[in-house]
Write a structure and sequence with these properties.
Largest sheet: 4 strands, antiparallel
Strand order of the largest sheet: 1-7-2-5
Low-confidence stretches: none
Mean pLDDT: 92
CATH class of the largest domain: Mainly Beta
CATH superfamily of the largest domain: Jelly Rolls
Distance between the termini: 41 Å
Number of helices: 8
CATH architecture of the largest domain: Sandwich
Strand content: 15-25%
Helix content: 40-55%
Radius of gyration: 19 Å
Number of strands: 10
Length: 219
């Protein structure tokens, strides 16, 4: 792990604020191992137990699910400093999702066994607290996703989505982790219709955008 990657890892919910000694203890606690991936790699096998969770150091991975008609649904996009797979790993469940790399990069492959096996140690207590807090945050994020999907019009979906991306109005500029096709899949809309609506919102002075970089002007 180089200096930049260590900085990213230490900014995550699991390791933020730890001393150098505590950081190394926490890495050992989770059995952390650095794994490289290439664009297009599948990081798990669907319908088989996911026995690890990951913390992205570099690159981006996306979590997908197929609906009953076989259509692909993007559940989330995970970038540097963010994690995936905790719930399935901890509950020892067969995976209903598949996790795919959308760029080359690397992640820390980690395990949850010691959350129970070392239940009374200070490290286990602190890591369990952080693990639970992260799952609670993930639940809130899923609620936000439901809010987006529940909107009828594409514009209302976009306004709700952008409000989430702006972190409650604290940011007016951000870069989305999606290309247009993935953005359409994530929002559950037609790609051409999405592009038309984005252009209309830009013409009306509501947003400005160039590729994946967006600037909110009047929302």
């Amino acid at each position: 792990m180089d200096i930049m990657q260590e900085k990213i890892v230490r900014s995550s919910v699991y390791f933020k604020g730890l001393s150098d000694k505590e950081f190394q203890i926490a890495l050992n606690f989770f059995g952390a191992k650095e794994i490289k991936f290439n664009k297009g790699d599948l990081l798990n096998t669907i319908a088989k137990r996911l026995n690890f969770f990951g913390l992205v150091e570099e690159g981006t991975v996306q979590v997908y699910m197929d609906d009953l008609d076989g259509n692909q649904i993007i559940m989330t996009s995970v970038g540097p400093g963010e994690s995936f797979g905790e719930s399935l790993c901890y509950l020892k469940l067969d995976s209903p999702v598949y996790i795919k790399a959308t760029s080359s990069g690397r992640f820390l492959k980690m395990y949850t066994d010691n959350l129970d096996h070392e239940a009374c140690t200070p490290t286990a207590i602190e890591m369990r607290r952080r693990f639970t807090a992260n799952l609670a945050t993930r639940t809130l994020q899923m609620n936000n996703r439901i809010q987006i999907l529940s909107k009828i019009s594409i514009r209302d979906k976009l306004i709700t989505f952008f409000a989430e991306c702006s972190q409650g109005g604290t940011r007016t500029e951000f870069v989305l982790p999606f290309n247009r096709n993935d953005m359409a899949v994530y929002l559950g809309v037609n790609r051409c219709a999405l592009s038309r609506e984005l252009s209309a919102m830009q013409d009306e002075g509501i947003i400005e955008f160039h590729k994946n970089k967006f600037h909110l002007l009047n929302m």
